[in-house]
Amino acid sequence: MDILHWVAKYPDFFLFLALIVVGYAAGRVAEARHYRSIRRREKQLSSVMVFSNRFPPEPGARHTAALVSGSAVISQDYFKFAVAGLQTLFGGRLRSYEALLDRARREAVLRMKQDARNKAGNMIINVKFETYSIPGRQLGAVEILAYGTALIPLYASGGQG
Amino acid sequence: MLITNIEVIPGRKIVKHLGLVQGSTVRAKHVGKDILAGLKNIVGGELKSYTELLNESREQAVERMVKQAEAIGANAILNVRFSTSSITQGAAELFAYGTAVVLE
What is the CATH number of the domain that holds B72? Predict the structure, then answer.
């Protein structure tokens, strides 16, 4: 009875509290599940090598090339958003946002690797990253794009060129 | 049409440089989907509708770039770059550019 009275009196505060609790619980579960999935797929795709070099590591080998890319939009949960908001008062390291960007970047790289594997590529060179924060999502959502050139051994692609 | 973001294709010679080609598209989000994404934003995680939107738009930008390259007689685009910028709240421009060349 008492609590209902307070909820009626300060609805904004209790909404904020509810969002924080929901955000914390759901966000934690979702993040743990996402990291498990990332680690599993990173193992599966470990045979596709990724380089940021502009030139292939074995210049003599015969390859054909194709542009591959992967991207992911990941958003921050409400709890972490609130915590990060407090942390910005003091400055320093915002661990919650680091995790967000780490997830987005690893997911983007995985999707790029999958794209390369679908095109029979065995390595990706000249990888570039692009980060774009989605406007209008006040809680923080970020898109990471990873793209590069997949090298496809000529015996795998039927030997044209 | 061969599209890559490296400057030379190993083992293939560039016969002719045709200069810069580009393609761009400006996209905004559907209001209904935007509200759903707003709800998803409370619990965090991937906003799939946004990922799809940006991927589709990027594909279209590449398509337009390819069309331009075909029009000037190129058979490959090298050194392709992407760039994304926000125009207003809820709208983004996706831009792709590269160098059109003729490979032998």
Answer: 3.30.110.70
